Amino acid sequence: MGNxxxxxxxxxxxxxxxxxxxxxxxxxxxxxxxxxxxxxxPTGGGKSLCYQLPALLLDGTAIIISPLIALMKNQVxxxxxxxxxxxxxxxxxxxxxxxxxxxxxxxVLEGKTKLLYVAPESLTKQDNIDFLxxxxxxxxxxxxxxxxxxxxxxxxxxxxRIKPIAADIGKAPVMALxxxxxxxxxxxxxxxxxxxxxxxxxxxxxxxxxxYEIRPKVKATAEIIKYISSQxxxxxxxxxLSRKKVELLAENLQVNGIKALPYHAGMDAATRSKHQDMFxxxxxxxxxxxxxxxxxxxxxxxxxxxxxxxxxxxEGYYQETGRAxxxxxxxxCLTFYSYKDIQKLEKxxxxxxxxxxxxxxxxLLDTVSYAExxxxxxxxxxxxxxxxxxxxxxxxxxxxxxxxxxxxxxNEVVLALNAxxxxxxxxxxxxxxxxxxxxxxxxxxxxxxxxxxxxxxGSEHDSHYxxxxxxxxxxxxxxxxDIENSGLLKLKKKGRDFLEKPESFMMVKNHxxxxxxxxxxxxxxxxxxxxxxxFAMLKDLRKKVAKRKELPPFVVFQDPSLSDMSIQxxxxxxxxxxxxxVGQGKAIRYGKEFVELIKQxxxxxEIERAQDIVVKSVAQKSKNKVNIIQSIDRKVSLDxxxxxxxxxxxxxxxxxxxxxxxxxxxxxxxxxxxAVDEDTQDDIFEYFKDESETGDxxxxxxxxxxxxxxxxxxxxxxxxxxxxLGN
Length: 727
Description:
The chain has five domains: 4-202, 3-Layer(aba) Sandwich (Rossmann fold); 210-400, P-loop containing nucleotide triphosphate hydrolases (Rossmann fold); 410-504, Winged helix-like DNA-binding domain superfamily/Winged helix DNA-binding domain (Arc Repressor Mutant, subunit A, Orthogonal Bundle), CATH 1.10.10; 523-612, HRDC domain (DNA polymerase, domain 1, Orthogonal Bundle); 622-726, Arc Repressor Mutant, subunit A. Helix content is 49%, strand content 11%. It contains 35 helices and 17 strands.
């Protein structure tokens, strides 16, 4: 049993494939021969088959330890589809009722079950251990084995208990499988599972069909909506770090006509399962998820993976981007990056054990250097996993398609390497960088490194520059980052040779995403990177319209609305209604001249409107709008409306302001006449009509005086004024 011809015949019989992929055949043969086997195979390489086929062929039941309930269901359904008997595969996890667990156990004891999927938490329960002792086990397969390592991107403490529990149940060969592991993680896995002598099979990490791009995180939601709208009918996954962001982004996509659903651990299991199935069945195109989604999800034609937030580690990034293009077809991987997100992640780590913080910080630094580097992204990723990518230009990442300026950095590399030697190769990149730039922090002073001859010798450059030097020197093979020792920098032979005989070293300048964000935030007063010429023209038009209608300009459209028009270029009344602060009423009342001006401007300047779509934003409190308007129509007191909606009075006023700003007319005279005397009303109304140029509330409070007029009264009369004259 076990010759190549036999295995190929069985592959054809059970799975309908005529040949194996990559290392699959050798991996299966190793396990069939009774060896412990370690499999490192990137997503899409066919890991599952490595344990599915031998499980069907060997005597007994294979125990497949898998971390995700959703994945188990998916795998079991898949295996059952290859045979006629549903008893062929089962799973044991917390989603099953007691009766269902009993049914599974009965089927296993009858000897029909070849694959039994078990969650690591279920494996630790004594009644399950006692049950498994009763059956013949063909082998143990530990899927997503990187969960064993604290250096892995999805560490789970219960994974570290697998070895003693398996030994208690009964000895059998062990197969560990993962799609992503650095040398450090691989060693952790083998050591923890007691399989240091295992046969090791490593496939290349290069996914040549994937395109990698990092973009500055500026108006990311709008960018994502425009991108997805250009990918009609294609499946995609968007990853966010928080559940709240998942919900909000999914809602934004839905409002813009994109078939999207949220997925995160805070939702109930039935909803999560339903959303996953709808994605697999293509009832929806996009899943917006936390990293709880997608591990092992067998959807081969995911065409894009977008990271709204950058992951905590490069392993996480590789694993998640790897869910694109598993069928070998197109796979676009877009990531929105802001250093502020990294700072948030660093804050989350505070309060955790020191060792965990150190590991987390090191992983984050690797992620930052990947994001900010202008070197080929594929080269950096593969280097991280211990693989050398020889090509100069991969042709499938943003850095290779749009190469950045290179500068001669021979002298700086010499200085950087000498700094490592000056501290006897016993410090991390961050510390050595602080020596070079002359940062006399507590650590530098305590080790007296401010007395070194090299201290401050690189102060004409900032820390980002020196980090880039060290990263590129690593890729060039000059230095090594000793992961076993918290990332200490050590010189390799090639680095020592360079010091003896320095040669030209062309360094690629890093991206400056912080500058891109700053530039974007200093846009026209409404925010956004609008077209300044059009913005000025729209302001002039607003002035003319306001003069003709004898109104202050802000009543026609406020500055944020003009700014948004200068970004979106709406050319119809319909499109104008999607602009920030413009509702149907306002668009119909004032919009004609504005869209005509924009249309003419677009034609004359041959402007290509982005995908000819306008991104609609989700008003945070829009759910209250209908209730508020209906209550006002019935002349319900504003205090009672606020109370019934669970809002403070100030919040209700904010809602009313949003309603009238977008062009909807409301009449709150019945409340104002009760609450504010007639003279006060007239004074405030006249101020907004004759004196205020912008309609700004803070300005109004300052001019009218808080001692004479309450802020509440000013706000209510301003709502009345905008509604009567503007809408």
